Fold these 2 entries.
Entry 1:
Amino acid sequence: MSRKALIAANWKMYKTPAEAQAFLDAFLPLVAGNSRDEIALFPSPVLLATVIPACKGSNVAVGCQNIHFAEEGAYTGETSIAQLKAVGGTHTLIGHSERRQYFAETDEIVNKKLHAALKAGIVPVVCVGEVLAEREAGKTAEVLKTQVAGAFAGVSAEIAAPIVLAYEPVWAIGTGKTATPEMADEAHKTIRAEVARLLGDGIAASMRILYGGSVKPDNVSSLMAQPEIDGALVGGASLKADSFAAIVKY
Ligand code: 13P
């Protein structure tokens, strides 16, 4: 089963509109015509009105780093899926470890967001990953299975096709410590087996699982060479156009 890779940039809480525009002026020509993999940018919502029109007609998709599960309402500080769609966004991250860690996002909330994204036709990139203490306690597989099963509660094989997963070991995020390609491959196998248990072998075989955590131009090729790794979710190294373009063109 060949899965089209997705190389994605999570800009977190970085860049002004002017900085985003400067990135795109440099980046889009560097990756123009690069159709081997899909490319997506996840900027802050404040930047969507700059980034989406600039990427229109290009090979670069744009999404949110987080969405709310409600259609609309009194949720100060949140972004609805309808708002994302109205400005032309097509993707969203869900359950990033920084959301789980700093904003108390639980598997239950992740699950509600996943249902809302699927219902609205937005491509969800659901993030899972263990913290260092869990890895050191030998609990990585258990944590990943719990997070995947929690995220997928009530999701049937009929509606699961658009889902993308991202394995981001929390200890590798922003630390310069990448999981070795073999460690990542092993975690991805665990995740895919859990997807197969929940949704069947067909969905599991076609679902893309990205790796995230200190992906850089000099380690992306060895990660992407692993059969279970179907793309990258890149933080720090996605902020500079030449660095992210080098990752896209690994
Ligand atoms: P870094 O690439 O900076 O480690 O961040 C990874 C990440 O959290 C992407 O979502």
Note: DSSP finds eleven helices and eight strands in the chain.
Entry 2:
Amino acid sequence: MDLEQVEILFDREQVMTRVKELGQEITNDYQGKNLLVVGILKGAFIFMADLVREIDLPLEIDFMDVSSYGVSTVSSGEVRIVKDLDYSIRKKDVLIIEDIVDTGLTLHYIKEILKKRGPRSIKICCLLDKPSRRKAEIIPEYVGFSIPDNFIVGYGLDYAEQYRNYPAVCILKPSVYEK
Ligand code: 5GP
């Protein structure tokens, strides 16, 4: 990790402690259900890989990739499905795994799309939540850490596709992107 570019917010150990707690909570809540864990690419891939190994239940895994419709329509929250789920979610208890909820517009849109497909339930689990930035009414059922409005990289999150491999959750120093 280049500590001239990033500042550690939560180190690997703090993250794993919290991921274990979330896994236990989810294990308790989903007893006897039909759990399908849906990861939103790419940011959630590391969080999801750690989290599912802390869930002691039978479960299925699928992935979805979405992108915003270009800069001018970002605020509308309209997203394009770049990769849809491979399987039907009918009668499944869907748990969406997201890296970070910011305005909430992306997840609001994804939830609306998935609701129409007849799941038994849909809940959201995010590693990070920036509630101060919310524009859509999205309240994740499971939150790793609630954080102030900083730009985060590491543990799966990127800036221009870099830093995803950093093991800690880091704040990207403004000097990097204000150059
Ligand atoms: P929302 O629709 O909630 O505003 O946007 C959520 C998405 O924006 C996240 O899945 C993530 O891709 C991106 N995002 C929001 N805040 C951050 C951040 O601090 N760091 C990074 N790397 N991505 C972010």
Note: The chain is about 25% helix and 30% strand.
